[in-house]
Amino acid sequence: MNPRYQRNVERVNVVSIFSTHGKLRVVTTPPAGQTSLQRGRRSARPSGDDRELAILATAEKLLEDRPLADISVDDLAKGAGISRPTFYFYFPSKEAVLLTLLDRVVNEADTALEGLITAPDADRDTMWRTGINVFFETFGSHKAVTRAGQAARASSAEVRQLWSTFMQKWIAYTAEVIESERDRGAAPVTVAALELATALNLMNERTLFASFAAEQPCVPEAHVLDTLVHIWVSSIYG
């Protein structure tokens, strides 16, 4: 893991409370005499994890065609092959399903950013492109969830908190890298690093989301990564 990012992770100390849905799963070991018998059996029913994943997969698929407001709990239950009462065993509402989907995507991006290893001799364009591409690839692979999550921020405090927490984490990391580039003489000292990092990350958010949704106006998705890298490098290095 990138040392600078690790320090930032420790400082922010983000604990995601959404991805486990507050459930405690207990795993028991059968008596020795029952082991061979159980191994020979095929599961007659899908497990709880399978049902939960089926609900999430159904929601993401439906969100590709219509907004959350037009999706009912019955739609989610039917798509997952379960009853409406069974749905409520896993999620209290369809909004909770979206929150979980968004949490998974955000954590996917965050984990990918933590795992970045940039070659020591990489040029500055490559260094920043590698980081920005994490968000381009991750959110671009889950456009329906990204779009629904953005729409939900206006009405959901939980979605706003989730997004704000990770945005602040990513901004702090960006600011630290900018400061490092300035300290080694690679970038000039201009505006405050944290303010520059904030503006650049907010620009990424809006620009990427507009491209993914094909809004008008927007930067075409095929060009958006190159455009963002150009702006970042120009802003940081002058």
From TrEMBL:
GO MF annotations in UniProt: DNA-binding transcription factor activity; transcription cis-regulatory region binding
Keyword list, A-Z? DNA-binding, Repressor, Transcription, Transcription regulation
Q: Which InterPro entries match?
A: EthR_C, Homeodomain-like_sf, HTH-type_TetR-like_transc_reg, HTH_TetR, Tet_transcr_reg_TetR-rel_C_sf
Q: Where is the HTH tetR-type domain?
A: 49-109
Keyword Ribonucleoprotein among UniProt keywords: no
Quote the Pfam families the UniProt record gives.
EthR_C, TetR_N
Give the DNA-binding residues: 72-91
Repressor among keywords = yes
Q: Where are the transmembrane segments?
A: none
Which biological processes are named by the entry's GO terms?
negative regulation of DNA-templated transcription
Annotated region described as Disordered, given as residue ranges? 28-49
User: What does the subunit comment say?
Assistant: Homodimer.
Q: What does this protein do?
A: Involved in the repression of the monooxygenase EthA which is responsible of the formation of the active metabolite of ethionamide (ETH).
Put simply, this protein is called HTH-type transcriptional regulator EthR
Species per Swiss-Prot/TrEMBL record? Mycobacterium attenuatum
